[in-house]
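HUMAN: Mind making up another protein with tokenized structure?

ASSISTANT:
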Amino acid sequence: MNDTKKPGLLSVDDALAHLLAHATPLAGNEWVNTENALGRVLAVAQISTVTVPPFDNSAMDGYAVRMADLSAPRLRVSQRIPAGTDCPPLEAGTAARIFTGAPIPMHCDTVVIQENCRTENDEIIVEKAPKAGDNIRRAGEDIAAGAEILKAGIRLRPQDMGLAASCGLARLPVYRKLRVATFFTGDEIVMPGQALQPGQIYNSNRFVLAGFLHSLGCEVIDLGIVPDNFDATVEALKTAAAQSDLILTSGGVSVGEEDHVKAAVATIGQIDLWNIAVKPGKPLAFGSAAGTPFIGLPGNPVSAFATFCIFVRPFILRRQGITQVAPPYYPVRAAFDWSKPDGKRREFLRARMECDENGAPVARIFPKQGSGVLTSCTWSDGLIEAPPATPIRQGETVKFIPFSGLF
């Protein structure tokens, strides 16, 4: 869906497409131990060199038997097979005591679970007949040798690490971490722990962006707060460009006399886009400074939060080598009215999922949607995408993007 836009405003879709077109995956891979690979992005698809499981084994504690022998009223227990041992073939007319994960002896075709057997001395009486093949995990039923087990470009999860380990992979090739240099402009912002002077506020964006970046597996280079003047901003950009793969700033990209970031970037690089038909967060800038990609977020905390989710996250993912960067979304029923939509800009409303009086899931929005109301972000658990010039009525279906699917 492309938004209607007035001259000078770029649609959300066009802006995102432009960013992704310039999001070149990082060059240079590194190998990490599999146990240290959580959250890293796999650089090369992984192929199993082994069959998993490597042999037929028991899925339960019980008795390994031949189905043909179950016509006898009793079977002598001729051997005991714990996991991790080898075993001789099963003697005809007998059963083998077997444990979960133990190899199935030759000539056996079924495992009877112990709950369905009664023991007397060294014999068993099967009280509930199984089906042929019950409770046997066949060699290769999970993974065949030569099969691709993990695709390149995925962020490794605990289950992916376990799958790699099950195939004997002790190390994995991953993209190196994206280095992101951040700084924050505004003579009015100070760090928590300092006493507020008249006209000052605490720098919440520094913590929001650091949290986002760490959750995406980035290496963060924090250059702190930069004074509101042109020369200091240029020097901060040069310092950031020299040691990072991406420069990310907050504040100073609007049109005020004290907004120097956009002009400073243009002096040592270029601005490719600015002013997007999105609310909150219209004054987002993208370009390069001294050869390093640059994204300048608005200074208002909700604007910085929302534009990171919408634009910065997919840009970072693509640079990390991840191909699927679109956030997951779900159609849900609105439990609110949005009667005065912005006429030109696509809006992202802070919302959370709740249950109505019948227990059905619905989305509610925070009552204050201003760009300075950071409590709307902590109260909510996702964003509602609201098209421009389109009212939303209670009961209508809306597009809900959960935060849990973003980070």
Summary: Confidence is low (pLDDT under 50) at residues 1-7. Helices lie at 12-21, 158-166, 204-215, 230-242, 261-268, 301-319, 375-379.
